[in-house]
Amino acid sequence: MVVTLNRPERSNAISTQMGRDLRDLFSGLYVKPEGVRCIVLTGSGTRSFCAGADLKERNEMTNQAWREQHAVFEQHVRAMMDCPVPLIAAVNGAAYGGGLEMILTADFIYAAKSARFALTETSLGIMPGAAATQNLPRACGVRRAKEIIFTAEPFTTEQALEWGIVNKVCDSETLMEEALATARRIASNAPLAVRQAKKAVGASQDLDLKTGFAFELEAYNQLVPTRDRLEGIRAFNEKRKPDFRGE
């Protein structure tokens, strides 16, 4: 599945409706992920991935309206973090504020050389509120995350790669091709196995080693009675491509 933020005239900024759309999409995948084996998230156009929340829409908002809108954003961020399907962010341009926070919910990130990143919230009188204070330190370490958030300064794709935020730097022309190639490789593997592995790796950030290992074993043992496990071993021994069905 390719998910495209499609408000290029507004730098793909997140409106209330976009927040609802993202919430509903990813909540639906949590309930029924069948048929979707990998997701690539990108932005429309070449200039911006996502400029963050739409500040024109927020202009002169009452405190109550602001909080109600942000509650929608909180729901879509939680839904993205809870998504059982592997999620690749293909960052085609600037990812600022909530745009950067959104890609930090992805399992990993490919970015165009021309992309730029920033968490600009402290320069606007607020702070990150879409899990960046939690996801960014896990990606690049606490000290680097503090520097990025406190200064609100933009940084390049090369810096993002060096700091562990981005996995791969691509030419703009080949970004989606490379992201989709990786997505297809993931989709060719057993979907239940990939989802269980995603759960276990995610749990590793919150559990001590032995508890995390116990979690891994529980996830592993859920796969033993599956059809895909039998098919994978059978295909290996018969020297053919496996037919994984998510069963």
> What's the order of the H and E elements?
EHEEHHEEHEEHHEHEHHHH
CATH topology (fold) name of the largest domain: 2-enoyl-CoA Hydratase, Chain A, domain 1
Distance from N terminus to C terminus (CA atoms, Å) equals 20 Å
- What strand line-up does the widest sheet have? 1-2-4-6-9
**Share of β-strand residues:** 5-15%
Shape: globular
Q: Return residue spans where pLDDT drops below 50 for at least 5 consecutive residues.
A: none
User: What radius of gyration results from the CA coordinates?
Assistant: 19 Å
* Largest sheet properties: 5 strands, parallel
Question: What does this protein look like?
Answer:
The protein has 247 residues and is α/β, with parallel strands linked by helices. The protein has two domains: 2-186, 2-enoyl-CoA Hydratase, Chain A, domain 1, CATH 3.90.226.10; 190-237, Lyase 2-enoyl-coa Hydratase, Chain  A, domain 2, CATH 1.10.12. It is 50% helix and 13% strand. The protein is built from eleven helices and nine strands. The protein has helices at residues 16-31, 55-58, 63-81, 98-104, 132-140, 142-151, 157-162, 175-187, 191-203, 209-223, 227-237; strands at residues 2-5, 39-43, 48-50, 87-91, 94-96, 108-112, 116-118, 155-156, 168-170. Strands 1-2-4-6-9 form a five-stranded parallel beta sheet. A four-stranded mixed beta sheet has the order 3-5-7-8. Strand 1, helix 1 (16-31) and strand 2 form a beta-alpha-beta unit. The two termini are 20 Å apart. The mean pLDDT is 96.
Strand and helix map with partners:
Blueprint lengths: L1 E4 L10 H16 L7 E5 L4 E3 L4 H4 L4 H19 L5 E5 L2 E3 L1 H7 L3 E5 L3 E3 L13 H9 L1 H10 L3 E2 H6 L5 E3 L4 H13 L3 H13 L5 H15 L3 H11 L10
Parallel strand pairs: 1-2, 2-4, 3-5, 4-6, 5-7, 6-9
Antiparallel strand pairs: 7-8
